[in-house]
Fold this sequence. Notes:
The chain is an alpha/beta fold. The chain has one domain (4-219, 249-260): Rossmann fold (3-Layer(aba) Sandwich). Helix content is 43%, strand content 14%. The chain is built from 13 helices and seven strands. The chain has helices spanning 17-31, 46-50, 62-67, 73-76, 97-101, 110-114, 116-120, 136-144, 162-174, 195-207, 221-228, 233-236, 241-260; strands spanning 4-8, 36-40, 78-79, 85-88, 125-129, 147-153, 182-189. It has a seven-stranded mixed sheet with strand order 3-4-2-5-1-6-7, sandwiched between helices. Helix 1 crosses helix 13 (241-260). The structure holds adenosine-5'-triphosphate and magnesium ion (MG). The site of adenosine-5'-triphosphate has 17 residues, from helix 1 and helix 11.
Amino acid sequence: xxxxxxxxxxxxxxxxxxxxxxxxxxxxxxxxxxxxxxxxxxxxxxxxxxxxxxxxxxxxxxxxxxxxxxxxxxxxxxxxxxxxxxxxxxxxxxxxxxxxxxxxxxxxxxxxxxxxxxxxxxxxxxxxxxxxxxxxxxxxxxxxxxxxxxxxxxxxxxxxxxxxxxxxxxxxxxxxxxxxxxxxxxxxxxxxxxxxxxxxxxxxxxxxxxxxxxxxxxxxxxxxxxxxxxxxxxxxxxxxxxxxxxxxxxxxxxxxxxxxxxx
Length: 263
Ligand SMILES: Nc1ncnc2c1ncn2[C@@H]1O[C@H](COP(=O)(O)OP(=O)(O)OP(=O)(O)O)[C@@H](O)[C@H]1O
Ligand SMILES: [Mg+2]
């Protein structure tokens, strides 16, 4: 069995990629009875930090897994407080990944190859948290994934990157050979009801017909606080408005991914 591979991608910073990746991964782990692997590939290490993992102390991280043949998945995976949810943590060393891998044959497909270990280990879902940039790391993510979820902040400038993201996915699909790849869902984030935010929502709906989450992820203090405590929203404030919103988005990710491809 191959695991479902869902990547949260936007080259823009601060669009809630990590917040959504962590909480959606936890939702799959707790509601779907499958083992979930959350793969952090960002130098900031925020996915780990959001789950209370001290990424600064780790000897081996995603960088070692991707670049060394003597570091299999089970040496980098760390458990989390959420049952069924494991983490491949990342930290500053990921910054060296493009340079260290630049001369390697098949360098665009290193993650895809390594994720076969996740299939063999019995993970049912792989969720990938991406860095806020385009480059070899993001190319690896696009080559390894099937479902792309794009979180877009509901601000004027955030619309700028949407055409580039669509083009990157199209290129990965049509020119670089990952024909399974789809933009499954676009999630407007950091939403506060203003005229401008609603104009941005309308534009997103026209750029991505049928692909918008039912509701945007509103600005919500409990979601922010949960991260500062190293907890998912389900652990920190399960009855909050933030938890309800996040659950709806996680359901949308699940349904949109199954609808847009072979699941
Ligand atoms: N619904 C929300 N309400 C309020 N704050 C939020 C919400 N969701 C996320 N945040 C906060 O917004 C900030 C950016 O979120 P996050 O780290 O998930 O974005 P990102 O896209 O992963 O950023 P980067 O591009 O740097 O990796 C964080 O400080 C996070 O706590
Ligand atoms: Mg992030």
